[in-house]
Every structure is written in C-alpha cells, then in structure tokens.
Design brief:
The chain contains 3 helices and 10 strands. Strand 7 and strand 8 (about 135-145) form a beta hairpin. Helix 2 (about 50-55) packs antiparallel against helix 3. It has a 10-stranded antiparallel beta sheet. It is mainly β. The chain has helices spanning about 15-20, 50-55, 60-70, and strands at about 40-50, 70-80, 80-90, 95-100, 105-110, 115-120, 125-130, 135-145, 150-155, 160-170. Helix content is about 10%, strand content about 50%.
Length: about 170
C-alpha cells in the first residue's frame, strides 16, 4: 500500500460524480494498449477477510454484519478510460460512480464518510486510492478471466481482503 496519497488527475464534483447511469458513460480518452474492458454485470460470489478489512475502515459492528450477509452487483460500462459503475446492494439500494481513469472523484463510504478517490491504470488493473479524514484504503480492480473480476482491498493498517465477482450479463 502506498505511504502517501498520490496527487494526480483532476477533480470531479460530488454532484457530477453522482450523475448518470452506467449506460450514460461518455466516450473517454483511449485506455492504455492491452488494458482490459470491465464492462458487464458482475455479481458477488465470494468475500475473503472482508469483516476485518471493514473494521479497519471504521465500519461499526452492525454494518459489518449486514455487509457480510448481503450480496452486491457491479454494473459497469467502460469506454476507453471512462468508467460508469453502478453498485447495487440487495436491500441497501445503489450508488453510482462515473469517472475517467487517471482522475479523481468523490464518494461516500459505507461508514458515511466522504472520500476522495484517486484512480490510475497499473498495467492491466485499475487502482483506486480512497482517502477520508480517518482512514484510507487501496482497491485494485482486476480481471482474472472473462468471467471473474476481483477487487483486492488493503487498508492503511495492512489488512487485505478480496471481493470475487462472477459475470452474469452484459
């Protein structure tokens, strides 16, 4: 995990970050050659070490218990570097992220804190550094194959977790 938060990209206002839907993504600049396309509908199949990771991110006991019991889906539309991600959690609603890889955006974390999220390509993965006033964590989005997307998470305390998603549609 990075020692200090990188300063790169441009900012997206909270209002702009919440606009649109995965289908509304605008054509972004071209992604680096050989970069994967994450487009599709992905359903959570397995979580590894998620509760200790959430605890490191100041998520209370009850929210951690609920997070461990519910499933989520990521509906992703990618055009070059432009990403639109709709995260739907059964029983909790959804949140929308729209950004261009290489820029930053604002989102609300599960504990209610607002985070600045820096994004960048790291070879065939998208790296996100989430920073709030009280914690930070790194999320690395990768495709293991055409049917499996893995979100690798690491807290600033060193706790690692994985969220493994299976493709269930386009």
């Amino acid at each position: 995990m990075a020692e200090a938060a990188p300063q790169f990209g441009t900012k997206t206002s909270p209002e702009d970050a919440k606009k649109g839907s995965p289908e509304d993504v605008k054509k972004g600049s071209p992604s680096p050659p050989g970069s994967p396309n994450f487009s599709g509908r992905w359903r959570l199949a397995e979580s590894v070490n998620f509760d200790p990771f959430l605890k490191d991110c100041n998520v209370g006991y009850l929210k951690r218990q609920v997070a461990g019991m519910v499933t989520s889906e990521h509906h992703i539309n990618q055009e070059g570097n432009a990403m639109a991600v709709e995260v739907t959690t059964m029983g909790r609603g959804s949140k929308h992220q729209e950004y261009e890889v290489g820029n930053e955006f604002i989102e609300t974390e599960i504990n209610g804190e607002e985070a600045v999220v820096n994004t960048e390509w790291d070879g065939p993965t998208i790296k996100e550094l989430h920073r709030t006033d009280s914690f930070e964590y790194e999320l690395v989005r990768t495709l293991e194959n055409e049917e499996t997307m893995v979100l690798k998470l690491e807290s600033n305390k060193g706790t690692k977790a994985e969220r493994i998603y299976k493709k269930v549609g386009l």
